[in-house]
Amino acid sequence: MSSSEPGTLGSAAPHQPPYTYQPNQGYAPTEPIPTELANAAPRGADEYLWEDSDDDVAYSDELDDDYLGGGEGNSGDITKQVNRQRQLQGANNGAPTALPRSNAQKPKANNSNHLDDLDSELAKHARKLKTDLIIDDDDFWNGDDRTGEVKDKDKDKADRATNELVMDQRTRMILLKMISRGIVSEVHGAISTGKEANVYGAVLDPLDGTRPLHRAIKIYKTAILVFKDRERYITGEHRFKRGANKKNNREMVKQWAEKEFRNLKRLHAAGIPCPEPLELKSHVLVMEFLGNKRGYAYPRLRDATLSDEGTENPWRPVYIQLLGIMRRLFRVCNLVHADLSEYNILYDKNKLYIIDVSQSVEHEHPRALQFLRMDIKNVGDFFRRKGVDTLQDRAIFDFITAIDGPVEEPELSEAIEQLYETRPSIQDAATEEVDVEVFRNQFIPRTLDEVYDMERDAKMPVEQLVYNSMLANTVSVKPEAAEEGSEEDSEDGTTADGDDRSESSEIDQSIFDKGPPRGKKHEDKDEKRQHKQTVKEEKRAKRAEKIPKAKKKRIIATTTKKRK
Fold first, then answer.
1. What ranges does the record list as Basic residues composition bias (predicted)?
2. Helix and strand tally (H, E) in the chain?
3. Which residues are tagged catalytic?
4. Where are the alpha helices (DSSP H) in 62-190?
5. Residues 6+ apart with CB under 8 A from 336
6. Cβ distance 278 to 287 under 8 Å?
7. What is the rounded distance in angstroms from the CA atom of residue 313 to the CA atom of residue 315?
């Protein structure tokens, strides 16, 4: 078979060019072109049929561009479209070329069937999903699959959100319980706001139909603690033995509220004008309302206005009254206010009311005397601005801390007037100011253990000691009487080492004489023998009166049978 005939092994396929590349020569024919291809006439474009089409549709220039892949929105390659056009029109020197290989695209996924497959797969795990989750606009509860009980929701940031720095969800629940218990009937707006708490007005409607009673509710701040100086009031206080709980603000504020509740109880029991504490729950304190019947609170001493009816300064009686309250607070209640000023005192009709005693400390507090001097300074500065002739800070301190003295009216006012009469005259204002500053910053010992230089204080007169008012006012033996007695004994011819001293020493020594030594090793042998013989006789007599065991069993057996 010749190579020129079609279908022979030596001839090239119609779709493969019979050319090969040779270096320095280019493309050269490797074999002769078959005669049927060389002599074949070119066919028209209308005679060229689609090879991959099922329908016998001839190509036409009038075909839609979308059919050729060049329609609007087609994302195909424009180069492939141009090559297809050129091949179909026989642009290669009028000779037809082989058709391009079909590049059929994969069909797009059926989305609906895909979703059905996902549903069937998820249906296997449907039983494992928790379907008992109930979502509500106000609450969020999660149930228990086993018991069906409703569990509380987890804590959320919204639960700790506060209004006016005090009103959170927990505080509202406490107020709601107080209303349900009949402690208050309504809670109104804020009366005053401070660094540690807010005070709100409340009303109690009695069941008997009488006039409503006004109440004051003090709510301590727990979210944002503006009052950060609690440490110096707590350290050393026996009610805070473990110190301040800095990790739990609510617990610390709760103890702070309990402290004010107890302090107000002390003041009210002592007869000092103050709001009566009624109820305490966590950090919410219900007190008596200090105001008129219309619900208006009494003004603070700083905002009070006094009428000038007489020639005397109207603030002087108020000053004397406040000094008496400070002494009763110290001696009767055993407390120091520690923050006494014109802001923590209410005034109405020539009467003072003490409020805000949460930071008050007892005498045993390490800084009790320091806080007392601070209160004296604040009170003196305010009344001096009002034109009152005030007493010296040292005189007021001695008056308040004196062990002996009146603690009730009108004796207190008379004692203060006596201080005005007996005070020394001021010769130099500069020297007086220096003395006041030295007293305010001087260390005052509370006990004899805190006196750091006893030898120096022993040589000083008692009147010059800063703690002379806290010393005992009676002594067992006076030094002057002892000296006079020694001088009389010397005149009589007796010396200090005479018989009187010896007799007193003998009497004192007899008190400390030791008795006979105790223990068996120090006993006498005859006494030991006698004691042993006595014990033996007692045991022998006891055995003689003892009932034999066999007889005791018979008695017990017979008594049990009779009972049956």
1. 549-564
2. 16, 14
3. 339, 356
4. 78-89, 111-122, 169-180
5. 329, 330, 360, 361, 362, 363, 365, 368, 369, 371, 372, 375
6. yes
7. 5
Split at pLDDT 50, 70, 90, the class of 551 is: confident
Residues comprising the chain, all counted: 564
Strands 197-204 and 213-220: antiparallel
Q: For residue 302, how many other CB atoms are within 10 A of its CB?
A: 12
Residues 6+ apart with CB under 8 A from 286: 178, 183, 184, 202, 215, 216, 217, 218, 277, 278, 279, 280
Residue closest to 404 by CA, chosen among 419, 415, 414, 395: 415
Spatial separation of the C-alpha atoms in residues 236 and 260, rounded to whole Å = 17
Tell me the pLDDT tens digit for each residue of 42-52.
555 455 444 44
pLDDT, one tens digit per residue, over 186-228 is: 999 999 988 889 999 999 998 888 889 999 999 998 876 666 6
- Of 366, 363, 294, the closest CA to residue 331 belongs to 363
In this predicted structure, which of 32-36, 71-75, 278-282, 387-391 has the lowest mean pLDDT? Answer: 71-75
- Whether 402 and 355 have beta carbons less than 8 Å apart is answered as no
Q: What is the pLDDT of residue 147?
A: 47
**Integer Cα distance of 109 and 311 in angstroms:** 105
Q: Distance between CA 219 and CA 167 in Å, rounded?
A: 8
Q: Which span out of 158-167, 372-381, 482-491 was modeled with the highest average pLDDT? A: 372-381
